[in-house]
Each structure stands twice: as structure tokens, then as C-alpha cells.
Amino acid sequence: MLEKLKQAVLEGDSERAAQLTKEALEKGLEPERILNDALVAAMEVVGEEYERGDRYVPEMLISAEAMKAAMEVLRPELVAAGVKPRGKVVIGTVEGDLHDIGKNLVAMMLEGAGFEVVDLGTEVTAERFVQAAREHRADIVGMSALLTTTMTHMPEVIEALKREGLRDGIKVMVGGAPVTQEYAERIGADGYAPDAASAVELAKRLLGES
Amino acid sequence: MARPDRPTFSVLLLPGRRLLKAKEGENLLFFLVSAGVHIPSDCGGQGICGRCRVRFLKEPPPPTPAEVRAFPQEELKAGWRLACQHRVDCDLELFLPAFGGISQEKAKVGSYTGPLRPAALRQIVELPPPSREERRAFLERFRTALGEEVEVPLSILKEIPEAMRSQGFRVSVVRVGGKVVSVKPGVRREPVCGLALDLGTSTLAAYLLDLEGGKELGAKALVNPQRSFGADVLSRIAYVQKYGEEGIKKLRERVLEGVNELVKDLVSEARIDPEDIVQAVVVGNPTMLHLFLGVDPTPIGQAPFIPVWRESLSLKAHEVGIKINPEALVHTLPMVSGYVGADTVGAVLACGLHRSGELALLLDLGTNGEIVLGNEERMLACSAAAGPAFEGGRISSGMPAVEGAISHVDVDGEVSFRVIGGSRPKGLCGTALVDLVAGLLGAGLIDPSGRLSPKEENPLSSRIRGDGNQRGFLLTGGIELTQRDIRELQLAKAAIRAGVEVLLSRMKVSPVEVDRVFLAGAFGSQMRPKSIVKLGLLPRELLPRIVPVGNAAGTGAKLALLDHLALSEAEGIANRITYIELSAERLFSSKFVEAMSFAAERMG
Ligand code: B12
Ligand code: FES
Prior knowledge:
The complex is a heterodimer of chains A (about 210) and B (about 600). Chain A has about 210 residues and is an alpha/beta fold. Helices cover about 55% and strands about 10% of the residues of chain A. Chain A folds into two domains: about 1-80, Methionine synthase domain (Methyltransferase, Methionine Synthase (B12-binding Domains), Chain A, domain 1); about 90-205, Cobalamin-binding domain (Rossmann fold), CATH 3.40.50.280. Chain A is built from nine helices and five strands. Chain A has a five-stranded parallel β-sheet, with helices on both faces. In chain A, strand 3, helix 7 and strand 4 (about 170-175) form a beta-alpha-beta unit. The two termini of chain A are about 25 Å apart. With about 600 residues, chain B is α/β, with parallel strands linked by helices. Chain B has a six-stranded mixed β-sheet, with helices on both faces. In chain B, strands 25-24-15-16-17-26 form a six-stranded mixed β-sheet, sandwiched between helices. In chain B, helix 7 (about 235-270) packs across helix 8 (about 285-295), helix 10 packs across helix 15 (about 565-575) and helix 11 (about 430-440) packs across helix 13. The interface between A and B is medium-sized, with 23 and 30 residues. The structure holds cobalamin and FE2/S2 (inorganic) cluster. Cobalamin sits at the interface of chains A and B.
């Protein structure tokens, strides 16, 4: 059963994934087991295949979508069962930048790994990052920038978090095509990842897991 | 045999869309020449020199033996013929090549087919000498003689007394529209020249034209000296963000340096005086135009991406800093938006989208792909940020299309390739990348998802080595196509294809309704149409309609010099184009993801 669900997610079959999740729940399987053994496990494979170059953005997206479809069914049960997410991530594309395909992918992969994700969308100002981080008690703030001219907003957000006294309790991760490990270090971010699969690893690492 | 009432046929010439009437049976070469088309013919129509090349866009006639000798099979198939070998016996649509082309070797003396109506012209006027009866001021007499209200700048005013007196009150006046640019004593024979400038992010191109004869005197290209400040426009804007005024000044100096070097070379090769260049028309993307004039480009660098100005400007060479006649007029063509610039407007002007009933798609491919879809009724444009892959950027063995770059690759059983300059291959340029990926797709060694995957039955599989993202296809010693390179290309081609799909859907048309596809830009016009559709860069239906047009932006600038009406036409084009902001289009993202795969039949 769970193996079939995992397969459906890997193949990106949203309908089947939702259907199989329903069936699994009806059969009385624990929501947490469905999450970890089928969905998270599937997304881990997706991430590995991506890293190996065997999968690319479209194939990753359809699996992520299937995972999302399954999550829609599963989420109320997880909440009811009191299952805590791995951590809470507030993510967005920085001010002046409208590129969101990569950011969306990162958000979906994080969800697929069991994180709760609050997606602020695009053109997110420092203020909104700070506000959302406070409101949602985020563990991690993730920023995406695809333009050389907008990645300069990243340090502003970090500054704002400091000013508001939130920086110590929050890990900051950054990404997007023009961003590099070196840049992340320079602006005082806690981590950088070059793609969605490694973003998941990074998030886990930042929260002291994995 | 000439019959008294021979029927006539229409001959449509591209680029420029000039329509001619020819009598049945006329020799095509001589017909074109007598219609004032500049077309090279070294052998006088004997079919020996192979220079009178034209491309039949509709129903090319069967090739003659001379043509089989002159063209490779592939070009014959594409409709290339020698004009001297054919007679007009039906309506024709011809593409004339030489007028255009960005690379040095391609910059041949051009064949201009449009009307010659330059704004710049020379007038010889005779002024009444001063006398008891003729007491009007010099300038008044000068104006009366020209018969028109003209504007005379101070520097020219200073020349007038000497010019009027020294040669019996006969003077040569050069004006551009209503502005006097030069006044010299006597009857002068110096040429009246114009300069067309195309300021590209990677390449600067300049063309020198004789405006009286409509001839191209020379063409030069140069790597943009701003290159060291970043490969794309945004890196240059980021530089300005960082260094402010100082940054703008520095970047402006670098372009000017490049432009003035081009001018110097052109002038010395054509043996003219820089003073003889009395008008310049400049095209380029918005960021380049801002930097060229020393205007802060930072508003273009962030949402909502707005340029400081949009319309065409009319300036003086001395204020701009181009080392030609200081009073020369410098016109910049208008822009459409922060990322659809004067280069795109120039390309539309050259390809004539705005004057035709045919629905045409114009693609100017580079780091930023500008796409225009439309006809005389309506035009839509967008900018699809392809990224540097098409110019060889971020590709493991990538390089620009210069000497030593592999330019074309064929994969059929074996792999063969062509190298620019014929020397030892050093890397792959964009066109080769496109060919190679298309070839490997055809051979089944790249699957529709873009994965490099060896096939046992295919001996070429042995060239695939390495693991994971590092695996690559070995083309030749040291030059490899890696999995990652393919991924980069997928992003670039998907951005363009998705942009095309958005415009088609906004125009509410399907690909079959597009009559013509103009591929512009150094990269675009060198790409093989077959590879383009194999990759899914364009819908398959468009294959037979693809016409490479060379540096159409530069051609547009030339047109504006040769025909003053084209300048106002450009303004009209810019105003009529509706700009589609792709980041606001939902459809873009879904089409983009869809187009990343190579399963072209899924698109539509
Ligand atoms: C698609 C695209 C667009 C689309 C965006 C659609 C959308 N809704 O996102 C459109 C057409 C609208 C667009 C517009 C523009 N674009 Co654009 N665009 C691209 C393109 C082709 C692909 C980007 C992409 O989606 N990649 C696929 C995703 C999956 O990858 P990714 O974004 O890199 O994300 C991955 C990683 O970076 C990482 N990651 C991303 N975010 C985060 C966050 C965290 C926290 C972590 C850990 C990791 C992480 O994980 C992701 C998944 O693996 C690139 C060129 C290229 N070849 O890369 C240009 C590019 C980014 N664009 C560029 C430009 C200039 C623009 C424009 C300014 C100009 C224009 N020509 O229109 C506008 C401005 C738009 C705006 N307002 O922001 C330039 C930037 C140049 C530079 N030096 O900064 C590029 C590089 C192209 C070029 N010309 O060189 N663009
Ligand atoms: S003129 Fe020489 S080949 Fe035609």
C-alpha cells in the first residue's frame, strides 16, 4: 500500500496519490507513517535522482504536485493526531524580484520532507519577512533571488531580523542562481544551497538533524 | 521571345518588404539590378562567381548545374539560388542576404532595396554677394538661398563668413533635416556619410554608409569593452548600484571607447574624414542606451523595470561623445520597455512586421530573447530571459562564436563538426550546442526529459562517460557536453518557447497561422532551423517559415539613415507594440516548465 503510494508520487500521478492516501487512512494506517514511509520517502528518492541528474525540474515538479495532492488529504489527519512538523520555514522571493519557479520548488520539496512552509510569494520586503517570521514563529527564513540586482536585499532582511531581535532564534538560508556559498557567508546567512534537493538537506542540518 | 503584352509578376524583396513588378521572362539578376537593388555580380551573370545569391522563400525553381556547384545541398534545399540563373515566371518572394550580418566576414557591402530618402543631404547654393542693394545679413542670405528655415549652430555660424567669401559666394551645405551640419566654401565632393550603431551587450557593431548613393562603405564589430563588468546587463546595473555616478561614468567611457575605435577603423578603411559623417542612428537594448548616454540605468534593474525615457532622441555628436562631425545628429531609436529596446524596434523596422498583412514572429536571440508577434494591425512583444547558454555562457565547454569555436555539429551514425576559422576546436558556441543536443535527441542518446542515456545498440554510446551530473558526451578531445550543459540549454530554450506560446495565446492564434518567422541576432540567424524545431525552441509547424535575417537591429539603424521616413516609422512601431510582462502571465510558468522537456508533441 505505502509502496504503491510512494510509486504514485514518484510517477507524479496526483489523482492516484490522493486516492491511495485516502485508502491508507481508511485502512487505519497511522498518518505519520503514511507521511514518512511513503511521501517523505518518495521525495527523498526524487531529491537523489535530481542530484544525480536523472531528474530535472519538470519531473521534480510533477512528483511534488502529487505529493501535495496527497498532503491535502493527509494534513487534517496529521493535525488531529498532533504530529509536529519537522520545523517551520518562512520562504519568499526578495523585493524587486518576481522569479518564483525555483523558490516554489524549494518550498514543495521542504513540504515533502515534512516541514511546514509559509510561502510569502514574490517581491517580499524585509518588513514582511520579519513580520511573517514573528507571526509564524519560524525556525528558518528562506530567501530566493534570481537577479544580481535584487540579491542585495538579502543582507537587508538579515539586518532587519537582527534589529527586531529575532535573528538569534532563526536560521537564515539563501538561494537562487546568482547567489553563492561565498555570498551567503559574506552577508551572514546560515546556509546556502544550489538546488531544491540540497535545500532540504540544508534545512535539516540547520535544525540540527540528519 | 518578347510578346507585346507580357504579363507582369510581383516580386517581394526581404528584408525591407519592397514590392516590385517584373515582366514575365526577365532575367532575375538584371531585373533586380535595373530596379536599383545592389546585388553583387562579379561575373556579369554567367553563373561563375556565385555572388548573386538570393533565397526563394516560395517554391524555389529546380537548381541549375551552376547552382549545384555553388551551394551545399542543405542551402539548395533552403531555397538559395543564383539570381542570374533564373527568369521571372511567377510571383516571387526573395530574401536578399548581404545587407546585414554582424560578424566581420559577413559584413559585405550591402544590397539596399528600399527607397533612398536620407535626411542628410548636400546642397550647393549660390549666394548673392553683398552690395548696396544686398544689405541683408550673411545668415539671412544663406537661409533664403537654402529656401527653408534651417537651424544653424554657433560653430557653423562662425564658418559662414569665410565660406561665403572665399569661393565667389558659392558654398556647399550639408544638412540633416532642418539642421545645418557643415558649411564649406565652393563645390565640394566629399561623401555625405552616416553611421549606424548597434550597441549589444556582448558585441558593438558599426556600419558606415554613403548616404548619397545608399552604399555600405564598411562594417565592423568589436567585443563590447564593458564585458569586463559582467556578461549581462544586470551585472552592469549592479555595478552602477554599487559605484553610483562613478560607475555610470566608467561604463559610459568604455562603450564610447569601443564606438570610437570602430569609427576610427571604418573611417580609415573607407578613406574618408570623420567630419564627413553627419548623422548617426543608434540602436541597442535599453540598458546599453542608458549607459551610452550616461543616464542612470538602475530603474531597469528592479521591478517594475522602467527605463528613464522611451522615445527616440535627437542629439549632437559632441554632446554624446562620438568622434565624428561634432554637429552631426545622433538619433537613438525608441524603446518599448525596460527590456524591449531600440534594437527590437530596429529589427521590426527591418523585417517590416508593421507594414505587412502577414502574421510574423520575430525572435532576436541572445542572453535576453526579445520576441515580437504581429502584423500591420497589432504587435505584441515580450522579453524572455533565456540566460547565457545561447552565447556559450555557463556551458562547460562553451565559448562565444569566435575563431576556434565549433559552430555546427552533425550526428548521423558518426559525429562531425565545423570549426570557425577551420583551426583546432577550442569549444562549443551556442549554435553547436543546439545542433549537438538536437542530434543526440535524434539518436536517442538524450531522452525526452533531457537525460543523457547510453543505448546499447548505438555505438556512439561509448562516448558517454562519467556519472551523475558529471556524465558527459565526448565530442572531441577535451570538448564535452555534460548533463549540466543540457540542463542549462533546457532552461534557455524553455524560456523562449514559453514566451512564444504566451504571445500566440495572447494573439489568439495557433502556430499554423504564423506566416513567417524571422530569426535575428548573430546567434539566431546562424542556427539551423532543423535543430531549432528538434529542440522544441519553436513549434514544428514553423520549420518551413523560418528566415534568418542576420543583425536585423543593425539593419533597422541603417534603414533609418537611408530613409528619413523610417525614423518616424520607428516611433510609430514603438508606440504600437503592446508589451507583455511575462512575470505577470500565469501561462508563462506552466508553459516554461512544460517546454523544458524535449517531448515537443506535448506542447501546444
Ligand atoms: C524563467 C525566467 C524568467 C521568468 C520568471 C517566471 C517566474 N514566475 O519565475 C520571466 C520571463 C518572467 C523572467 C523575467 C525576468 N528575468 Co528571468 N529568467 C528566467 C530563467 C530563464 C530561468 C529561471 C528559473 O526559473 N530557473 C529554474 C529554477 C528551478 O531554478 P532556480 O530559480 O535557479 O532555483 C533553483 C536554485 O537556485 C535553488 N533556489 C532557488 N531559490 C532558493 C531559495 C533558497 C532558500 C534555497 C536554499 C535555494 C533556492 O533551488 C531551485 C531549484 O533547484 C533565467 C535564466 C536561466 N537560464 O537560469 C532568467 C534570469 C534569471 N532572468 C533574468 C532577467 C534579467 C530577467 C528580467 C529582469 C528581464 C527580462 N528579460 O525579462 C525579468 C524580471 C522579472 C522580475 N520581475 O523579476 C536574468 C538575470 C541576470 C542577472 N545577472 O541577474 C537571467 C539569469 C537570464 C539572463 N538574461 O541572463 N525570467
Ligand atoms: S552573377 Fe555571377 S553567378 Fe550570378
